[in-house]
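Lab notebook page, bench 4
Experiment: in silico fold of construct C2
Operator: M.H.
Input chain length: 430 residues
Purpose: comparison with the prior construct
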Amino acid sequence: MVEIAYSSRRFQDTLERFCKAANPSSVIVDAVSKILADVRSKGDRGVSATLRRIDGIKIKPPQFSISSGEIEAAKGRLPKEELRAIGESVASVTEFHRHALPSHWKAKNAHGATIGERFYPIDRVGLYIPTNLASTVVMTGALAKLAKVPEIVAFTPCDEKGQVSDAVLAAMSFCGITEAYRIGGVAAIGAMAFGTETIPAVSKVFGPGNAYTVEAKRQVFGTIGVDLLPGPSEVLVVADDTVNPKFVAADLLAQAEHGSGREKIYLVSLGNAVAKRIKDEMRKQIKSLSRKTTIRETLKQGFLSVVVGNYDEAAAVANYVAPEHLELEVAGSELNRLTKSIKTAGAIMQGEWSATALGDFVAGPSHELPTGRAGRYFSGLQVRDFFRRSSVIRYSKAALRKAAPAALAFSKMEQLDGHGRSVSARLEEE
């Protein structure tokens, strides 16, 4: 754990180093590159060899696929309350993103030409689902289904016996996914990008993952599309003296339990007394959690506690970090002001009742969010990411005449006389 005051002379350097620690090392970059090269050159054999060498999983290409029968059968084994939870989550996510569905449009420009845009679902998308995360199936698959993507393909790790959790499979069923593979990690990203003898490549990959998976997505970008680069989980909580320390402590521990060891936990407190109350509560609560060993290891390396003097300083820290999840556990009068001031967070939870876990599971927005300061230029996953867009223009002779002078001027200033000729040739036909 790192503790520092905003007013400290070494604060900015400390914050920068802490954030950069999430960047992939050269060891990760090189390891990912080698695996991707094996999958690209060897196809199914490369996938099998990688799974055996890294995960100890011995499955052959005919066993890669998860049948639609397996997917449907999982629903029958899942407790009713879990099925209801998945159904509720799918409904909430679908309803939230329905508001953002893109639609074709047409208008007239200043020349009198018809202009517009058309939107098309991407033809084939791959969803990467980390181990046991049924919620990630919903947060990606429900959007793909809403966008009416023709081919939705899921990839998820299996255990040494080739088994995948029933909850993950049931969530696939709710989202209409019928093609799935029991392949995880870098091998899955490689199979999606390059294709193999038994697995057709996709056009775009979606889904979060560990540092290796995220680096794999970075390296295959350009061969296929990628949604964003969501890596190990992050949360930043801004807390003032109105806070309930039990709530904040629980939320900080929750984001530390994912298990990669690279999670980033930020506590930004308005005063030392607030910070102490929250940390004392964290020490109490951690004892009762099943993943306390994992959480303690994460907190040793990935917990930064910052004491600030006012709300503006808190906003400055948050805007620099660009956290995946931002919780504003502050006085009600400050909620809207801070929300307007902090412009880089992936998702914002306002007030003490808005636990990050609600956004993770059932609130509606996708939990696939930018990490590693990528919130400066990426936003969280949205339904538009499952579409591609084409602009459309349609000129008449009259509209061409109006546009010609400006077009010819551009061709002259850029010394592209062929461009100018393509316009003037049409004028000569009058």
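Observations: The CA atoms of residues 197 and 331 lie 58 Å apart. The longest helix spans residues 80-98.
Next step: discuss at group meeting.
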